[in-house]
Write a structure and sequence with these properties.
By secondary structure, this protein is mostly helical. Among the domains are: 1-111; 250-305, no CATH class. The protein contains 18 helices and no strands.
Amino acid sequence: MLLSLLPARCILYDELDRDYDQIVATNLAHHERISVQVVEVIRQRLSCLGESIHAADDLRFALATLDPTCLAKIVRDPLVRDHLREAAFGTKGGVWGVIPKTLAIRGLALLDRRAAFHAAQKALENPDTRDREHYPYLLVNLDEVAAVAVLFSQAAREQSSWVIQAMGRALHAVHLEEELTSRLASENAGERRAACSIIARQPASDTIKCMLHGALDDADSSVADAALGALREIRASEEVEKLVGAFEREPEPDRQWLLLDALIGTADSGDAGQPCPAWARRIAAAGRPMMRDYLKQQLEKQRKVAQDQADWEDRQRRS
C-alpha cells in the first residue's frame, strides 16, 4: 500500500502544470521525495504576482498552509519578498489586497525577523488596523524580550480593552514579576493601569496580589478599577484551575458535561489570536469528541459576547 502512494503523488504532480490546484500543491510540497519539485512549481505560479490576482491568492494560500521549511524556499524569491514587505507594512494587503497582514508578517519573519517585528508593532499601534488582537502574539513570538517593552508601552495608551486583554494573554507565559512590580510603582497612572490590566491574564504571585490590593486605593480611579478587575480575573482563573482538574479526574461523562458547562461560563474564552486557551486545550485532551466540538462552538459564542461587552464598556467610558 505504501509503495503505491509515491506513484499516485507523482501523477498528481504531473497534473499540477496542466491544472494547478492550491490544496494539491501544498499537500505535495510536504512530501520529502517530491517537495523540491513542487515548491518550484509554486514559485513559477508566483512569478506573475504583479500582474495576476490569482498568483496573489496562491501566495496567500501558501502562507496559510505551508510549513516554514517549504515556505522559506518560496519567500526568498525577490518578487515574493517585495510583495510580502508591501503587504506587511502597507494598508491594502499587497498589490491585489488579498494577503492578510498577519500572514505577510509571518512570511516576512522567515527573511527578516526585525522587519517583521517592526511591521507587527506598527500594525498594533494603528487603531485602524483590523483584528489587532493578533499582533501581541506575533510580537512575543518574534522577540519576547523586545515585545514586553512594546506591549507595556502600548497598553499605557491603548483605548481598546479587548486589545489590552490580548496583550495580557500573549504575555501569559513570560516571567513578568519584576516588570509588573516596577510598573505598579510608577508615578505614571497610565503605566499603573496598564500593569493592572496585564496582570489580569497572568499567573499572579502573592506579592503581585498584595500590590493589586494596594492599588485599590490608588488616587486615580481608573487604576483602582483596573486593579479590582484584575483581582476578579485572578480569582476566576484560580477557580478555573480547580474545575479543569476536577474534569480531568472525573470518570463519569454526565459529571464531565456539568463541569464543562461551568467552565464555559467562568473561564476566559480567548481571542482571535489565541482561539483555544490553555485550559480549553486540557479539556479537549481529556474530553470526548462530542465535548470538543461543543467546546469549540461555545468558545466562539463566548468570545463574541466578551468582545461586544468590552467594546460597549469602552464606548461608555469615552462618552
